[in-house]
Amino acid sequence: xxxxxxxxxxxxxxxxxxxxxxxxxxxxxxxxxxxxxxxxxxxxxxxxxxxxxxxxxxxxxxxxxxxxxxxxxxxxxxxxxxxxxxxxxxxxxxxxxxxxxxxxxxxxxxxxxxxxxxxxxxxxxxxxxxxxxxxxxxxxxxxxxxxxxxxxxxxxxxxxxxxxxxxxxxxxxxxxxxxxxxxxxxxxxxxxxxxxxxxxxxxxxxxxxxxxxxxxxxxxxxxxxxxxxxxxxxxxxxxxxxxxxxxxxxxxxxxxxxxxxxxxxxxxxxxxxxxxxxxxxxxxxxxxxxxxxxxx
Length: 296
What we know:
Blueprint: H1 20-67, H2 78-88, H3 97-111, H4 124-135, H5 137-140, H6 147-156, H7 161-166, H8 178-190, H9 197-212, H10 221-229, H11 241-260, H12 267-276, H13 279-286
């Protein structure tokens, strides 16, 4: 009998042409508008951080693959996507070693320790932001030379609605332009890469909560980053349709409560991490049960 080497791989085994690299290329294209907006407003500071996160993410994954003796140094384009998203949530005033550590933590600890792409139970980018704040809160806090003058400038500054949507130098690199983020999200929807169930419910529930708290219902850019690129993460969000609605609702409510009542502008990222923990339960409760009749 002829001996044949059989390749064993996890399900599903149905091929439809949607290879990982094709999906990742679409995500890279969707991230480019917000990347360009961040570079436009923050210039060379943003470019340095974007380059640092992408290069570090690629090197970290390559070294990990070499450590576990995988044949290829880079198996897919997911490190580039992860590096770009990590740069989105980085402010430009932090030293360069902060985004480098964020990329290493997200790639090795959150992603690879749990089996690689699609196996992690928390969003890597959001987890890295929480890790940085918990470890280096003083470095992550925005430096203020004169608190009194800064407060007076904020109170006197009036930003138009168009400026808030199109873009303004406020927040992290990827949060400056809501329009650029929505363009990227629309591209992914048209390409069939993501569904709008989670993002729309996330934004709508957060807006309702902001209105309840008597705040401006035009949410900060962090909410749109979390809605478009984190509530749609394949590995850490529910796969069922109803589950995606539930996930968006819980995350949106949590994000607004943390942001407003907790005075924490990073509320959307904390909310994503918290809701990620409930993903298995949400999927279990929203999966249709099939009743089997037992015959005598």
